[in-house]
Amino acid sequence: MQPKNERPNYGKVFLTFASNSLVRDMTFRTNFVLQCVSSVGWTMMNVGFYLILFQYTNSIGADSGWDQDKFFLFLATTWFINSVVQAFFMPNAEEFSELIRTGGLDFALLKPIDTQFLISFRKVDWSSLSNFLAGLVIAGISLYNLANRATNPMTPSAISILLYIVFLFCGIAMMYSLMICLSATSVWLGRNQTLYNFWFYITNFSRYPMEMYDRGWGKPLYGFFTFIIPVLLVVNVPARLIAKPIDPRTLDEQLLVGWALAATLLSIFVSRWVFYRALSSYRSASS
Amino acid sequence: MRFLPIVTQIFLWLAVFDSIEASRGNSTATIGGFGFKEIVAYYLLTMVARAFSSMPGLASGIAKQIREGEIKRYLIQPIDLIGFLLINRVAHKFAYYVIAIAPFSLVFFMCRHYFENGWPDAITIAAFILSLGMGFLIGFFLEATIGMIGFWFLEVSSLLFVYMLFSFFLSGHMFPLSLLPDNIEVFVNFLPLKYLAYFPAAIFLGKIPKEELAFELTVEACWLVFFVVLCRWTYARGVKRYSGFGG
After folding, report:
1. Which of A12, A98, B18, B130 could serve as a FRET partner for B79 with CA atoms 20 to 30 Å apart?
2. pLDDT of B186-240, one tens digit each?
């Protein structure tokens, strides 16, 4: 026998979780297909809505540069991030609240593996990744249109694509941290059924270009959701990197990108801290 | 909390109207017959309409009762399932909104400047209230009918999700239906889903011409009768098909 204090192989454990979930999804194949279809349906409705919107206007916000093609690139970014969050973290966060309420968390605490890892990655909702594909289609079409249109054609450079991918991951990490913090609150509240609503209301702000809040009574919101709960950075920073030429950038924009990086690290640390605070207040449940 | 999405909507439309006005050079742009303030007022009013017409858990509850056999209760007791659920729903809505009227009025008071024309006249208000009431009933019988599908397919949750998607889009909850391209709008106007959100709000904002109010309300009443009959009929057919097992 090997000595037992060996570090578990996290990659392998994650792959096992993922394949188990896939097996479970494939057991009810029709249900899986229906779930995919309905989430793509939701995407189509959003696309439909924005197409209608762009019938009436040529950009979101005067002189903001978010014209139809660029906004759809923004939308695709939202879709990438949300689909990953929904596929990997959403089912687990929901389960976490339930584990706390029922006392099932005891078993997770006993396992010889990092508890946060175990709680965060146990389930994968594969059907949500269909929206990732939908995002790819939207991004593909809008990049094509952007490159081939008559006025201001644009192709993103290699470096902007690279940065885009890096900041997609940052966005995902920020969303993940927020979700862990929210679901950890169920330790103190006993039950947190409004989790999903709360999540929806907060992330709702991230779905649009951030400059649109930067006016009048939106300024406090703009500040709050940029610096305290950085949901505005999640989609905006990567989308901006790919949708606008990389070179002439103002200092503000460069600072924003830097802040996004810092905010990612900070939010990961804060979420881990909140998670462990929550665990230390956990008092099991009678069975 | 449920008012937060309105905030993002306000900013979105503010940005949209900004760019329309910048490109056209005038300051009173309207799209689909709605100016900026009217759109915000519209979203607020659809929340009222949805407060009446949304039926969380109704269809899935009926399907669950069918699946788990609880429906037997209504077959052997002298209680009518649909009537029971309807009264239940009325009581629930009443209790909920007696409390919720406070935040609702606060938000409306804070947003009163979006209602440029102030209160509409008495006839419009009467029509608005009537359409809210009928919206509630249409919402109830429509969802109950979907729940009855549970007699045929035991699991209706995915079907329900598809219905919710369509109703979100086509009831006018997402945006005013008059923004739709004309050829689609004609078609959507024939659907009953608009009574769940768009129609009451449009009445309040005076988007339905006075002469047509009576006619439109009659059409709505016909839809209501249609769904009452459909709901009863599917229930009767479903009960015939139903077989209860176990205890």
Report:
1. B130
2. 888 888 888 888 899 988 888 888 888 888 899 999 999 999 999 999 998 888 8
A1 domain residue, yes or no:
no
* 3-class SS of residue B124: helix
CB B138 within 8 A of CB B224: yes
Residue A113 structural domain = 10-280
* Cβ–Cβ below 8 Å for B1 and A57: no
Full-model pTM: 0.83
Is the minimum CB–CB distance between B19 and chain A shorter than 8 Å? yes
State yes or no: pLDDT of A248 exceeds 80: no
Residue A3 lies in a domain: no
Q: What is the DSSP string of A107-141?
A: HHHHSSS-HHHHHHHS---GGGGHHHHHHHHHHHH
Q: Is B206 left (phi over 0), alpha (psi -120 to 50) or beta?
A: left
pLDDT tens, position by position, B100-125: 888 888 888 887 888 877 788 888 88
Min Cα separation B240/chain A (Å): 28
Query: How much is the ipTM here?
Result: 0.79
